[in-house]
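User: Could you go from structure to sequence for me? I need the amino acid at each position, not a summary. Structure tokens:
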């Protein structure tokens, strides 16, 4: 690109120079018909033809390289963005500022990086062209060069000012743009379409979208009108300059100070010089916007990521199980504690059920246990080793967890199970084993393509599953990780009917013998089967024991159990 850009910068001047030689050779041939001037004129025409061909080849090659580079660059930038995102902690994703940068960096990744390259090279080409034009024009008159540059100055200043304004405008509109994008997602995304239709949200979404658009449009219009009006009037200065220089060149030709060939060359160079200035200005304007993107991209890439310190893969007290020691936790940016002073021991082979009202902190407990967040104070030990000391992969191998909002991947049924263990993602025999354990096998085998049935709406012939069927898939996913000795189910069975849930939990318990099984459920018929139950309220453990003990105690658990049981009588 560098070599081609330099060539593209120099060639126009060379073509203009040869053009002058042609005119002069033609005039010489007319005045001396018998001389060799015919041959000379013909020779210069051939040279110009070759130069024009070179110019065309250069332009083609630049376009080709830009297209090739565009794909490579956008892939590269996408990977940079993705690697950073994968290294970030969950809490950072929940930080609106960081997430905003991530979304914006991703949005423009396919087009903006190549536009940066294009603008830089366009500017270099304009400067090279101007230097070569200047070098030739200066031999006619240094004033011509000075006029060319000076006439470009007002337009340059105006362009800088308006580009600066555009830059500020972009900054200002970014949160508004994000709101607009969200509305577009809600209105058009297949996940939202049911509610949007049934609640008649369409007109409301469109109105909000239009209101934001009108606001942004007014600001855009003001900027564009200013930019173009000033551009036109300042452009007139350029035209006036062109014709004054034109006049002086014509006068010089009449006075025989320069040849006719030189006259055409100088005029061509001056005109092209003005075009080079316009192209350079456009590049500078574009670079302001590129700069905005770069600042967002680099801000995002510079986001500090906490290095997980742990490298250990075994604890000092094997078979010690899990211990929560005075664990308290507050979500980043939140004033209130979601968990307070949690002390809890879960021994290997034990099944533990966690119950509590909505928002009491049950899922948060699991998020800390799976190290998605770090405790604000206190510590969690696995086999006597602080969770923070465990290596990422060792911990991942030990814990299998399914959250209530597990992901419905638009992949094959088998792959939806396979995600439970990325190392065996495509291992069909593992899918089958896990499906049997998760009690999903019967319905999967009744599907037309069995484990190879495509799910979701994104791809052709994708099938829809019921809520309960999806949950069976999610359960099977939990059983993919055969090495895991801690299995956690955070309400993934709520869409199953009560008898199926009870069966599932019974089988879950049998299959997790010798392992730690943790279950969150609002169904007491299932909860009662656990070896031990804890009741969480306002982020604290308020009761613990097995079903019989808690019923005898007659406190919160007994009360909640009776309320639910009376509903079935
Ligand atoms: N990502 C988050 N950022 C800030 N606060 C959160 C976040 N997730 C949960 N909370 C808050 O933490 C508290 C505990 O939430 P948690 O999800 O643990 O409740 P839960 O007991 O699992 O509830 P449910 O039974 O409804 O699933 C709630 O007050 C909730 O608003």
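Assistant: Here is the amino acid at each position, in order:
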């Amino acid at each position: 690109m560098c070599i081609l850009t330099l060539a593209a910068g120099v060639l126009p001047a060379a073509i203009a120079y040869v053009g002058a030689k042609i005119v002069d050779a033609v005039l010489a041939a007319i005045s001396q018909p018998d001389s060799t001037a015919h041959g000379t004129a013909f020779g210069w025409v051939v040279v110009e033809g070759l130069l024009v061909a070179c110019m065309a080849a250069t332009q083609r090659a630049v376009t080709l390289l830009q297209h090739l580079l565009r794909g490579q660059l956008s892939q590269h930038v996408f990977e940079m963005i993705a690697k950073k995102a994968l290294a970030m902690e969950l809490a950072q994703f929940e930080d609106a500022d960081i997430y905003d940068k991530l979304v914006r960096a991703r949005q423009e990744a396919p087009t903006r990086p190549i536009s940066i390259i294009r603008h830089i090279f366009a500017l270099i080409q304009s400067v090279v062209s101007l230097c070569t034009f200047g070098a030739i024009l200066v031999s006619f008159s240094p004033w011509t060069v000075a006029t060319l540059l000076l006439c470009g100055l007002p337009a340059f200043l105006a362009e800088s000012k308006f580009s600066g304004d555009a830059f500020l405008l972009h900054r200002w509109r970014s949160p508004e743009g994000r709101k607009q994008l969200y509305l577009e997602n809600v209105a058009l995304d297949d996940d939202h379409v049911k509610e949007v239709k049934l609640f008649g949200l369409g007109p409301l979404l469109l109105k909000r979208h239009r209101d934001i658009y009108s606001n942004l449009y007014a600001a855009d219009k003001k900027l564009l009108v200013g930019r173009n009006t000033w551009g036109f009037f300042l452009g007139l200065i350029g035209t006036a300059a062109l014709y004054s220089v034109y006049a002086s060149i014509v006068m010089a030709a009449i006075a025989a100070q320069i040849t006719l060939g030189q006259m055409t060359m100088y005029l061509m160079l001056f005109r092209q010089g003005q075009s080079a200035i316009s192209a350079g200005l456009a590049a500078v304007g574009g670079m302001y916007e590129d700069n905005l993107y770069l600042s967002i991209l680099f801000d995002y890439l510079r986001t500090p990521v906490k290095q997980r310190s742990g490298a250990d893969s075994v604890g000092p007290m094997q078979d010690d199980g899990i211990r929560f020691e005075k664990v308290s936790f507050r979500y980043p940016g939140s004033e209130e504690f979601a968990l307070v002073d949690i002390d809890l021991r879960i021994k290997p082979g034990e099944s533990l059920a966690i119950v509590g009202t909505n928002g009491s902190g049950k899922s948060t407990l699991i998020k800390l246990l799976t190290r998605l967040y770090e405790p604000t104070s206190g510590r969690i030990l696995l086999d006597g080793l602080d969770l923070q000391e465990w290596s990422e992969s060792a911990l991942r191998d030990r814990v299998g967890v399914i959250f209530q909002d597990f992901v419905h991947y638009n992949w094959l049924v088998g792959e939806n199970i396979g995600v439970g263990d990325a190392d065996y993602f495509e291992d069909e025999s593992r899918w089958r084993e896990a499906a049997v354990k998760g009690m999903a096998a019967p319905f999967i085998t009744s599907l037309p393509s069995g484990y190879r049935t495509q799910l979701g709406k994104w791809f052709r012939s994708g099938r829809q599953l019921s809520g309960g069927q999806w949950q069976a898939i999610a359960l099977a996913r939990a059983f993919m990780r055969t090495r895991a000795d801690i299995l956690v189910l955070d309400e993934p069975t709520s869409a199953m009917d009560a008898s199926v849930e009870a069966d599932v939990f019974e089988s879950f318990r049998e299959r997790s013998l010798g392992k730690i099984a943790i279950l969150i459920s609002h169904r007491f018929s299932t909860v009662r089967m656990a070896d031990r139950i804890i009741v969480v309220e306002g982020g604290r453990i308020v009761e613990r024991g097995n079903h019989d003990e808690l019923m005898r105690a007659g406190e919160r658990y007994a009360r909640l159990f009776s309320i639910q049981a009376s509903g079935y009588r």
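One structural detail worth keeping in mind: The mean pLDDT is 88.
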